[in-house]
Amino acid sequence: SSNQMWGGRFASGPAAIMEEINASIDFDRKLYRQDIAGSLAHAAMLSDKGIISSEDRDKIAQGLKTILGEIEQGQFQFSRRLEDIHMNIEARLADLIGPAAGRLHTARSRNDQVALDFRLWVKEELQRTDTALTGLIEAFLERAGEHAETVMPGFTHLQSAQPVTFGHHLMAYVEMFGRDRSRVRDAIERLDESPLGAAALAGTGYPIDRHQTAAALNFREPTRNSIDTVSDRDFALEFLATASIAATHLSRLAEEIVIWSTPQFHFVTLSDAFSTGSSIMPQKKNPDAAELVRAKTGRINGSLIALLTVMKGLPLAYSKDMQEDKEQVFDAAESLELSIAAMTGMIRDLKVNAQSMRAAAGSGHSTATDLADWLVREAGLPFREAHHVTGRAVALADEKGCTLSDLPLDALQAIHASITDDVFNVLSVEASVASRKSFGGTAPDQVRSQIAWWRERL
Ligand code: ARG
What we know:
- Pfam families: ASL_C2, Lyase_1.
- By secondary structure, the protein is mainly alpha-helical.
- It has helices at residues 16-22, 25-28, 32-48, 54-72, 85-97, 110-146, 166-191, 210-216, 226-231, 234-260, 288-311, 325-349, 354-361, 368-379, 383-400, 409-415, 429-435, 444-455, and strands at residues 151-156, 159-165, 193-194, 221-222, 268-269, 351-352.
- The two termini are 58 Å apart.
- The structure holds arginine (ARG).
- Residues 24, 28, 84, 110-111, 114, 318, 320, 322-323 line the site of arginine (ARG).
């Protein structure tokens, strides 16, 4: 049989394989709420402008509300033959209210309809992401407050560099997730224009009011160019780019959790709730949630690249290629939501092994920079010379198998005569951390003021 929507010029129906490659209902059914909201706003506007009668508008509204209930109660029969969510709903509307259903699509195309539905969905998803990131940031602020004075080794090249506080390290992630949240908010701002009324690509001859439907659907304003409106998917790309960057931050953190929770580091212990065991090795407690967060980043990044690649060769305006936008976005959204939720749980539950951190912070001559700084400050050496002198002290400590602060004063004085007893005051990790009071530095008071700054911006 030929198609109920466009059967006029067709003599026969599609091949089975055509239906299979063409149908999007298996995934775009997710857009039912947005589709119905768009149709309600459109029908109300058509009636206000005298394009359809108020009786037809009421029948359409009644029918759409019935359909919404049917879908939400799982009673709706989705059909692949009807291709997508738009035609599934319209066909059911015709069953329910008869010929009036055929007036709903006046001054509208599936091209502006799908652009509308998808924008509405992405906008809501961005709002959910904003909330989720805020919850994650809260969890970090809480833990950072507890550990503003907990000393750990800071790393570069994953080699001990200088001691920092665990609170400071956690606050580094707050900055990242804070930027992610602001990218999410920027994306909402740019996306906040209604596509409805762009029609197929050229606009319409009917006297529609796009400002009315934009306002009814809570958009700031209608889009300005109808060709762009049905061609544009950069709101989806921006969601995916934002999601990829956030996922990349989550992945780095996940990687650190994997490292920190090894018996060799023993900086943190994951709660049982966020670990798994081994079916063979009874001693194991594995950081699977962190590993999966790290892996989902690959999926999310893949979605971004997939959609960029779909879009890059498309001439204006609509091409069916663009139907491939949705699965990428849905999959990335689900992965990101899960990742943020799992990470929030892991951070909230994380047991911090302060003693192991403290012990590691004291190894690897992590206060060597403090010795060099002392030589600059107290003995007036140029920094480059102080660096060299300190390097010799480090070599000596290595030779003796001890720490810098274990070196006897006369051994240090043999390296540079100006060194006095006072130097031992700067060689402890606590002294090192406390001295780094520069704005944004690791000293506990700096960390506390970073936390306070963020608390005001939650
Ligand atoms: N299912 C389609 C999509 O997701 C809806 C738009 C179809 N428009 C068209 N001209 N075939 O893109």
